[in-house]
Amino acid sequence: MNKLTxxxxxAILVAAMGAGVHAQEPVDDETCTMCHDDIGxxxxxxxxxxxxxxxxxxxxxxxxxxxxxxxxxxxxxxxPRGATGARVCATCHSSIHSAFEAGDVHGRSEVNCExxxxxxxxxxxxxxxxxDDRQALCASCHPRQERTFSRPYGHRLGRAxxxxxxxxxxxxxxGERSVRVDRAGDTVCVTCHADLRGPYVFPHVVGQTGGCESxxxxxxxxxxxxxxxSRVDQLCLECHSPLTGTTIGSQPPSIHDLRSQRYRExxxxxxxxxxxx
Length: 277
Known about the structure:
This protein is mostly helical. It contains 16 helices and no strands. It has helices at 3-23, 29-33, 37-43, 58-62, 66-71, 82-89, 94-101, 105-108, 113-116, 134-139, 143-148, 164-167, 189-192, 232-236, 261-264, 270-276. The longest helix has 21 residues, at 3-23.
């Protein structure tokens, strides 16, 4: 090998090594927006783009973009999706991801971050980077629950700012429906219905055999006070009856003749009223 050939080989080797080192260098966001200008225009106004200090870059979520920039191949960049994408989100949103990991119903149903959120969406769109209006988004998977709000008695969506996330935590929480609890550990119901918090001399079912939903349909009902039954005595007798082993006793006392209307109005009794209100 003559000196000229050796020099050329050395130059090629140095160039190749330099290219390899360059390929590992971070790609700045400005380089990305040269092709993805639509995302670049909106990203600055997203919650991610508005983070002060250590703001996330494109490579924070998509991994190294060097090979993608060099080749222009979409297969050479990471697109966070599904459970894998949720773990990418968890690098910053660890507390939210922990709720999903704990067995939240959304997590078990393969509902992940991008199901409800669009990370490049401006903050002015639907808030919290949601892909749609919050109520429409919930209703897309829970149409039966949405229909119950049209019943004459119960809650009204949109009134006083009430919506699904007022009572439910979409990222996970206690129970199958992720119903929120307050700082005292009480059901979210008493957050609005504070007069029913108690304590009572004779507590009713709350904390013993059930909760508010033992008697009420929270989304909406065809019965006054959003009760599960049209007659109060029929509702009470579901528990206050000796017919099955799962009830709370042989109530009412034998002196109560349920054929009489006066004994079928359970809530007007002064004794029962102390723990039913």
